[in-house]
Amino acid sequence: FTCNPRWPEITRELLPHQSAVDRPDLTARVFHMKLQELLKDLLHNHCLGKVIAYIYVIEFQKRGLPHAHFLLILAPESKLRSTEDYNSIVSAEIPNPVTYPLAYETV
């Protein structure tokens, strides 16, 4: 989970000619609020299934913005076991070679 310096909650509070890295107090507060919402979705709303254990660590990128790494342990009934299970939460699309030739070539 990475802090986005273009989040509206950050950009609307910046003074002219300021960037997000100039306001570590602001970015840390907004990141913390959004991190708490993510934890609520994961732990209480069970958006990925029932979590029985978790740990996370917050680090700061070279440009001074925070990000978090999560390890979630799901209950046995929530674990993904088949390709259909994975397809229910992960999706990918190959770009159109005519419309997006560079993206298609990259993939």
Which structural traits does this protein have?
107 residues; alpha+beta; two-stranded antiparallel sheet; 33% helix; Helitron_helicase-like; Helitron helicase-like domain-containing protein
Describe the 3D structure.
The protein has 107 residues and is an alpha+beta fold. Helices cover 33% and strands 18% of the residues. The chain contains four helices and two strands, in the order ααββαα. The chain has helices spanning 8-11, 24-43, 83-87, 101-106; strands spanning 51-60, 66-74. It has a two-stranded antiparallel ribbon with strand order 1-2. The two termini are 24 Å apart. Residues 1-72 form the Helitron helicase-like domain. InterPro entries: Helitron_helicase-like (IPR025476). This is Helitron helicase-like domain-containing protein. It holds the Pfam family Helitron_like_N.
What percentage of amino acids are in beta strands? 15-25%
Overall form: flat
Segments where pLDDT lies below 50 for 5+ residues? none
Order of strands in the sheet with most strands: 1-2
Order of helices and strands: HHEEHH
State the helical fraction: 25-40%
Distance between the termini: 24 Å
Radius of gyration: 18 Å
Oligomer designation? single chain
Main β-sheet description: 2 strands, antiparallel
Number of helices: 4
Pfam family, one: Helitron_like_N
InterPro entries: Helitron_helicase-like (IPR025476)
Organism: Rhizophagus irregularis
Protein name: Helitron helicase-like domain-containing protein
What's a concise summary of this model?
This protein is of the alpha+beta class and about 110 residues long. The chain has a domain at about 10-75.
